[in-house]
């Protein structure tokens, strides 16, 4: 059976392309989604790609991933640095989690150096722009 991977994006990531392009690049979230879906095909994976500006909706989607998904890739945006609720939801998941950020958090302001997600994720990819999502998908490649 094809493994299903849920890719979640948090607040303001819907603005990619126009939002601080010097930090986040010129690719839109739709561009990244398209590339992930194309790569998923070659990896024999199925991708469900979503974005929300609402913490509660992200919590519900993480809970949903408990059924039928083989992995979760998450860029929680600013909630990365603030949300115990997202961390608790992730802790209740039994599937591998990969944390992704477009920018290199550690080159930026100090408040971005702490993530509530990293310690509950299998791994972290940051600083590679949209390519980071594809690197994360590779980790789920069908064996
Ligand atoms: C981000 C980094 C966060 O600090 C920031 O709040 C974002 C985007 C990234 O992808 O680099 O919204 O998650």
The share of residues in helices is: 25-40%
Order of strands, main sheet, comes to: 2-1-3-4-5
Poorly predicted regions are none
Q: Which range does the strand content fall in? A: 15-25%
- Give the distance, in angstroms, between the N- and C-terminal Cα atoms: 12 Å
Question: What is the molecular shape?
Answer: globular
Write the H/E string, N to C: EHHEHEHEEH
What would you report as the Rg, rounded to the nearest angstrom? 14 Å
Largest beta-sheet details: 5 strands, parallel
CATH architecture field: 3-Layer(aba) Sandwich
Overall average residue pLDDT:
96
CATH secondary-structure class = Alpha Beta
- Total count of strands: 5
**How many distinct domains?**
1
Q: Please, what is the oligomeric state?
A: single chain
Figure out the total of helices. 5
The CATH superfamily is identified as Dehydroquinase, class II
């Amino acid at each position: 059976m094809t493994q299903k991977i849920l890719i979640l994006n948090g607040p303001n990531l819907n603005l990619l392309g126009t939002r601080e392009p010097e930090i986040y690049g010129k690719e839109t979230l739709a561009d990244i989604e398209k590339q992930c879906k194309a790569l998923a095909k070659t990896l024999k994976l199925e991708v469900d790609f979503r974005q929300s500006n609402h913490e509660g909706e992200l919590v519900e989607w993480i809970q949903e991933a408990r059924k039928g998904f083989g992995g979760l890739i998450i860029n929680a945006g600013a909630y990365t640095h603030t949300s115990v609720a997202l961390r608790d939801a992730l802790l209740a998941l039994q599937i591998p989690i990969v944390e992704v950020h477009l920018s290199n958090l550690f080159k930026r302001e100090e408040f971005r150096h702490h993530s509530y997600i990293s310690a509950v994720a299998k791994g972290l990819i940051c600083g590679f722009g949209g390519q980071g999502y594809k690197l994360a998908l590779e980790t789920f490649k069908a064996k």
